[in-house]
Specification:
The complex is a heterotrimer of chains A (124), B (207) and C (285).
Chain A lengths: L12 H14 L12 H8 L3 H13 L3 E4 L3 E4 L4 H25 L4 H14 L1
Antiparallel strand pairs in A: 1-2
Chain B lengths: L1 H13 L1 H13 L5 H22 L2 H5 L5 H35 L5 H29 L1 H22 L5 H8 L6 H26 L3
Helix pairs in contact in B: 1-5, 3-5, 3-6, 5-6, 5-9, 6-7, 6-9
Chain C lengths: L2 E11 L4 E10 L3 E5 L6 H8 L7 E6 L2 E2 L4 H6 L1 E4 L11 H11 L5 H10 L13 H13 L5 E5 L7 H14 L6 E5 L3 H7 L2 E6 L2 E7 H7 L1 E5 L1 H5 L8 E4 L4 E5 L2 H7 L4 E4 L2 H10 L3
Parallel strand pairs in C: 3-8, 3-9, 6-7, 7-8
Antiparallel strand pairs in C: 1-2, 1-4, 4-5, 9-10, 11-13, 11-14, 12-13
Classes of the chains: A mainly alpha (124), B mainly alpha (207), C alpha/beta (285).
Chain lengths: 124, 207, 285
């Protein structure tokens, strides 16, 4: 598992950790039932405070992505794949909305945007 | 407490070469009165351990160790007493040896008394200086002991103009052979008092 | 919550400095950074906790025990690194091992020598031949080698090069992998603290200004920069301190999210501990 933290992005570190782990769970890079690193060892390996990793895990727990088993640790929860798909679609939607917003700002017509999409999709 | 004593012996050992050279030169210069040298050097060296402690703020650090304050006092008193005893014993043996070498009469009693007297004197130094060192540091203690010696000499010479000390001493002769024991007893009591005072000082000290 | 160290209402008066009512708590398994200007009272507080200063008012409780009555047991479990206070410098690391065996019940010679090896310190050399960095590492090795539960350090990384500092910081994080163990260290090198401190306690002029999680400080506190017109629109309740500079106002807030919603200002920046300190000390309300 790889986690990359940016110190200058303005996004709190615990949020960055949370989002990255969340993504890995959704994409099933982290499989349901898999054991996650302990709060302390994760803090040590990321060189951040224990409170930070604790916050990240607590939020993931609240949102249902991981569950805590007393004296055993944190495990990836059984993710509702529908929920996961929804998250993935939401992410794509957000980026498309952003692109449209920029297009509007520069007065680029929708037909040109559609053309661009098709070229990109063909090239993939 | 053993640890603290070990630490001081590391300091003493590091000065050993210097001491040995000093002693050799002293003897070569034909000094006759060796009975004073070893015990005096011993206490000087032991007092120097206080200076080493001070330079590295060992005192403050040692207070963070278990029983640090108590052990710092106990170790200094114990090691000083042991070293002075050993130095005096060594001095006695050397004096006996030197007399034998020079030929002539071997007055063991005289030599023993000589050594004993010096040892008692050095113990007195310990008794008076150590509480001052614990309270005010080595430098002030050195000055203090000089002042004390001058004061004692002054008082002694002042008093001797009206008191006939020979008479006082003969009055004490009722102790006869027990005067050695009396001195040992008094020294022990004074040493204990000195230790208690130093301990009290050290237990309350702030850095 | 389980606290390994509780400091309550410490008071101590000196001729030109007074420690006034210092209180804070350090939970188990945590690292707390202790920050403040020189002369603010960090060292005095630490000395009181370590029993180097005995004449003071207030209470110190360590591992649930009162320092005044249980100092021997407490000291067995504290590892200490202080600035320039250590063994006489004619001593060698191997001497330290022999001495500490008789001082601490839990002294671990193997661990000590492992540290010496890891730090490339020669056991038979006198401390006076060591560089500042080597000395610090030796002091830290000595503090760790008797398996303490609480590490108390005064400026442990000062004078160390960045590589050595990173090594020391790693040591601290390793140390708290055991949830019963905690670290309290004072430092001016706030970048180290921003990385690994769980809690930050800030002392100024003998008083505790704040004692919070580092996350809260870095995520909820912020610096707002604006002009005088915008500054006039701010309600004093919404900020902590401000500084009027030649070309702008710098404002310290502790409620970034609400502030952003309430005021539409452009520059609401993430804060560093350095900036926080300066604004708290030099800012006005």
């Amino acid at each position: 598992m790889e986690i990359l933290i940016s110190n200058s992005s303005g996004i709190p570190i615990y949020e960055q950790i949370k989002e990255q782990i969340k993504k890995k769970i959704i994409t099933q890079e982290l499989k349901s039932g898999e054991l996650l690193p302990s709060i302390r060892s994760l803090a040590k390996d990321l060189r951040c405070s224990v409170i930070t990793t604790k916050n990240a895990y607590e939020e993931l727990q609240k949102e249902g992505y991981i569950k805590a088993i007393p004296s055993k640790g944190f495990y990836v929860a059984n993710i509702n794949l529908e929920l996961a798909k929804e998250e993935q679609l939401k992410e794509v939607q957000t980026l498309l909305e952003k692109a449209l917003k920029i297009a509007k700002m520069y007065n680029i017509e929708h037909s040109i945007v559609k053309q661009m999409m098709e070229i990109l999709m063909e090239g993939d | 407490m053993k640890g603290f004593i070990k630490k001081d012996f590391v300091i003493i050992k590091s000065n050993f070469k210097f001491l040995a050279i000093f002693i050799v030169i002293y003897c070569l210069l034909g000094a006759s009165d060796i009975s004073f040298l070893l015990p005096f050097l011993s206490i000087m060296v032991l007092i120097s351990t206080f200076t080493y402690d001070n330079n590295n703020k060992w005192d403050a650090y040692s207070f963070t160790l278990p029983n640090g304050r108590k052990h710092s006092v106990q170790s200094k008193y114990l090691e000083t007493i042991i070293v002075i005893l050993m130095a005096s014993l060594l001095t006695f043996l050397i004096s006996v040896g030197m007399s034998l070498v020079h030929g002539g009469s071997l007055d063991m009693m005289n030599l023993a008394l000589n050594t004993f007297g010096t040892m008692f004197g050095i113990f007195l130094m310990e008794i008076f200086m150590y509480p001052i060192i614990f309270k005010l540091g080595v430098e002030k203690a050195r000055i203090g002991i000089l002042v004390l010696i001058f004061a004692l000499v002054f008082i002694f010479s002042f008093l001797s103009s009206f008191i006939d000390f020979a008479k006082v001493l003969s009055w004490l002769s009722f102790l006869e052979n027990y005067w050695v024991l009396a001195i040992i007893l008094i020294t022990t009591i004074l040493m204990f008092l000195s230790y208690k005072i130093s301990l009290k000082i050290q237990l309350k000290k702030d850095f | 919550m389980d606290y390994i160290l509780e400091v309550k209402n410490l008071k101590k008066e000196y001729a030109n400095f007074t420690l006034k009512d210092v209180s804070f708590k350090l939970p188990k398994g945590a690292i707390m950074g202790f920050i403040g200007e020189n002369g603010a009272g960090k060292t005095t507080t630490i000395k009181i906790i370590l029993d180097i200063i005995k004449n003071y008012q207030g209470e110190v409780t360590i591992m649930g025990m009162d320092l005044k009555n249980h100092d021997q047991e407490i000291k067995e479990n504290i590892g200490v690194v202080l600035d320039d206070m250590f063994f006489p410098d004619v001593v060698t690391p191997s001497d330290i091992d022999k001495i500490m065996k008789d001082v601490y019940q839990n002294w671990d010679s193997k661990m000590f020598y492992d540290f010496l090896k890891e730090f490339s310190l020669i056991a038979k050399n006198q401390i006076k031949t060591f560089s500042k960095g080597m000395r610090k590492k030796l002091e830290i090795a000595t503090a760790l080698a008797h398996h303490p539960k609480l590490l108390i350090l005064d400026e442990p990384t000062s004078g160390l090069d960045p590589v050595a500092r990173a090594e020391v910081i790693d040591l601290f994080q390793n140390f708290i992998q055991n949830e019963e163990c905690s670290v309290l260290f004072s430092s001016h090198i706030t970048s180290d603290l921003e990385h690994i401190a769980d809690y930050i306690t800030f002392i100024n002029n003998g008083e505790i200004v704040l004692s919070k999680t580092c996350d809260e400080l870095l995520n909820n506190y912020a610096i707002v920069k604006c002009g005088s017109k915008d500054f006039a629109k701010l309600k004093p309740d919404d900020y902590l301190k401000y500084r009027k500079n030649k070309y702008n106002y710098e404002i310290l807030i502790d409620n970034k999210k609400q502030f952003k919603k309430k005021y539409e200002l452009e520059i609401i920046d993430k804060i560093t501990l350095d900036e926080l300190m300066v604004l708290m000390v030099k800012g006005v309300k």
